[in-house]
Amino acid sequence: MMSAPDSGVKTVCQNKKAGHDYYLDEFLEAGLVLAGPEVKSLREGRANLVDSYAKVKRGEVFLYHMHISPYPFSHGLDMDPTRTRKLLLKKREIKRLIGKTETKGYSLIPTKVYFKRGRAKVEIALARGKKKFDKRRALKEKELKREMEQARKKGN
């Protein structure tokens, strides 16, 4: 799961469910505060973003419920795989996020974890929740698009 080799970006994991459950409005790149064994585990692609979210607390942004599997060769350092991790953002970005998340219905959802120039980064999206009928409509549109594409390919 690598991007262009010259871009220096290696994707670790993506939250594909986020696009189904939320309207993703705005994206931000944030640094991730990790311990050594967690970085090694991430480099092996052993992470999961399902059910994770970010929150602004006391002027800082934290990521909750992101699962990073323990690195098997780190002895003596037992860390909780779903511990709360701090995100690194600029103060003005955090202030803007505080204003947006206090608005009814907005939340911060991580969409992707990747390495950029050797540093662990997380892409967070400002998201609004979808209602059940919105999700069904999106699935129908996706299915129709897929069927039209198949019909077009068969026609050629």
Share of residues in helices: 25-40%
Rg calculated over all Cα atoms: 18 Å
CATH architecture: Beta Barrel
Low-confidence stretches: none
Q: Sheet with the most strands? A: 7 strands, antiparallel
Bulk shape: globular
Widest sheet, order of strands: 1-8-9-2-7-5-4
Structural class estimated from helices and strands: alpha+beta
Number of strands: 9
CATH superfamily: Small protein B
CATH topology: Small Protein B, Chain: A
Describe this structure in words.
There is one protein chain. With 156 residues, the chain is of the alpha+beta class. It has a single domain (9-130), classed as Small Protein B, Chain: A, CATH 2.40.280.10. 31% of the residues lie in helices and 37% in strands. The protein has four helices and nine strands; from the N terminus they run E-H-E-H-E-E-E-E-E-H-E-E-H. The protein has a seven-stranded antiparallel sheet with strand order 1-8-9-2-7-5-4. Strands 3-6 form a two-stranded antiparallel sheet. Strand 4 (53-57) and strand 5 (60-64) form a beta hairpin. The mean pLDDT is 85.
Note the main attributes of this structure.
single chain, 4 helices, Small Protein B, Chain: A, 7-stranded antiparallel sheet, two-stranded antiparallel sheet, alpha+beta, 156 residues, 9 strands
